[in-house]
Amino acid sequence: MSTFGDCRYRQAIPLSSGGRLDINTNYGLRRGFLPQGHRRYSPLRQPTAQEVMTRTISAGPTTVFIIGAHTNFAVFLMSNPQLKKNIEHIFVMGGGVRSKNPTGCCPKNASSACTPQQCGDRGNLFTAYTNNPYAEFNIFGDPFAAYQVFHSGIPITLVPLDATNTIPIGESFFEAFQKNQATYEAQYCFKSLKMARDTWFDDQFYSSYFMWDSFTSGVAVSIMLNGQGSNGENEFAEMEFINLTVVTSNEPYGVYDGSNPFFDGRATPRFGLQKGGVHSGHVQTGIRDPFCLPDNGVGKGKCQDGYTKEISGPEGVRVLVAQKAKPNKDKDSPLDREYFISFLEDLNLPSQSGRFNLTTQFPCYKEILYKADLRDRSSGRPVVFDMDMSAGDFVSLIYLLKIPAEIVDLKGILVTANGWATAATIDVIYDVLHMMGRDDIPVGLGSVSPLEKPSYSCEYVRHIPQGSGGVLDADTLFGLARDLPRSPRRYTAENSVKYGAPRDTDHPELRQPLATEVWESVSEEVYSKLGKKITVLTNGPLTTLANIIRSDKNATSRIQSVFIVGGHIVGDDEKRGNVFTVPSNRYSEFNFFLDPLAAETIVESGLDVTLIPLGAQRKVNSFPSALRELEAAHSTPELSFVLSLLSTMNQLRQKSHRYRHVDTFLGEVLGAAVVAGDPILRAVLETKPVRVLAGDESKDGRISTVGIGGKPVKILKSLDSQGYYAHLARTMGDKEQSAVIGSFSEQRRRWSKAPCET
């Protein structure tokens, strides 16, 4: 349900810009270029990797390409030994055998002050080379899984850094690619490559960005087309057989220090592993593991987890290894590698070419921004909504957009990205705002890590399930996000020197604003120009708001009140909290648990704080009651979407234990209703002094209402549950402030209908 060991391997990959955010969105290019088809992720219906592999490999002889971590395939091999006979060959991109990293080296004429970084390393872990200079990202993603694959007895061809380091992109190739974009796939690949170049962290892109996975595919296909000869004859790479293994733990072996989950605290090792064997040493615990630091602080890091190590003796496996890219046979060509020619030719072939991109998929495609005209209406309470993008947060957002502007004037949205969804889910916020005709509302991206924690930390967020019922379903809104109309606004990696980027990209005006920037803009408008204070509603961890309080000395004076959906007040019944993945933490609530220091910061800030705690949320988390009222209400596009979302969650909760907790998200909508203040809720508040506990996982995020030192906050004690359900349904069904474009299906019809609208 959660990730062991603070994401010991995954933390090597940055979470925000330059890392997962840019990969998940392909720098923001994906949604603006790729067409939208009918297939989509659907909870409990989406085939698993194991199902697909089993079905495919059972059907007959199969060749496997692995260009990422080896987890999926290793699990398959360990679970289905009888199907190994059907696997003819495995092609792997990853590892470094004899490689010498060419990046991070000092120029020849550099001063003595220049300090080499990854220069000469076997690996490419740019986030962790001081601890582990040997590993490459794909193998490091799961070293034990890679070991299982390499030692499976199946023939393997490896294209490691040794070879890919010899095929940098180069300026000549980049220019040739720019001139050869005859197909949609060529256009998409070049756009991706160009954005990678334009956002590269230094001016060495052409010598430090290589053809990793694509070169592997070329070598593999060439070997297959040449009849898979015994020596791996192919057009693009020089090959050599090498005996090697994958390092999974560090010497000395058999000394159990708490780092190795296969051995530590076990009478019998997992998977029948040998005590004192190669898997029994220290396992790197993270990218800042003290064990891995060089002795006396001098030299390279000493951990080798994930190292594809050349070795003699019985532990070695004979692997066909690509050594270097072959030069272009045409000496007069500006392209110096043979593979460059094939890559550009094949990518531009008209056969098996893409049919269209998003803009050509629909004859009447047009990007329109909808902005609300509120000039003739009195404005209500200025509100900033801070959300971590759980399903409940999106229902809350739609609800806030439905409340008359005379009551709630939503000024901005802050995204706290260390909660239930990844930062890339910000695109779904843009889609909801587009549906509701509010493309004028700014959205700011906040921190991806808790207060005072390093950017790679997943100390708390690792306790949110990654798959079913967790991040996967939050990111996709349980598969329903694709029903929303596509907004012209989206996350993009476009950036500007003005904001600290190394260079301006083509469209710096499209840059994604940060949460602090949106806050500064909104607070300046509301406080300085309108003479009002801001109400803040938080529906996730309090990280973003705490960062604002700490960085902006004027923030507290500009905040009228803070409504916090979170925390758990333990009553006489001692009912548990909802952090179900941490059994030792019985009385915390997730939003406080995910950043207890931030929660403590806000509670002790002196702000006017109102808590909507877990106990109150549980009074309104009945799916049958909510669905009954919604089904009886007048239909609007937004009500239909909310009804589909809640119905899906309810059905999943009944079908699988993985979804038993999703009623938590339904309860989160209560905070927005309390901010709106409809008297039908009959909300009763009481004031109590509270403290937030932090520093012990079993108590992190727990609220204490006893002892000295607590700060007084208002706590929602009771409300009329039935009145709340009726109010929610009536609001969602109100024809006022309704969707201007109800769904992607409606958008598709508009874009497909001729004559095109002007």
From TrEMBL:
InterPro entries assigned to the protein according to its UniProt record, in alphabetical order: Inosine/uridine_hydrolase_dom, Ribo_hydro-like
Q: Which Pfam families match?
A: IU_nuc_hydro
List the GO molecular function terms.
Answer: hydrolase activity, hydrolyzing N-glycosyl compounds
**SUPFAM superfamilies, sorted:** Nucleoside hydrolase
Superkingdom of the source species: Eukaryota
Residues annotated as transmembrane: none
Inosine/uridine-preferring nucleoside hydrolase domain sequence ranges: 39-248, 383-724
Entry similarity comment? Belongs to the IUNH family.
For this entry, the protein name equals Inosine/uridine-preferring nucleoside hydrolase domain-containing protein
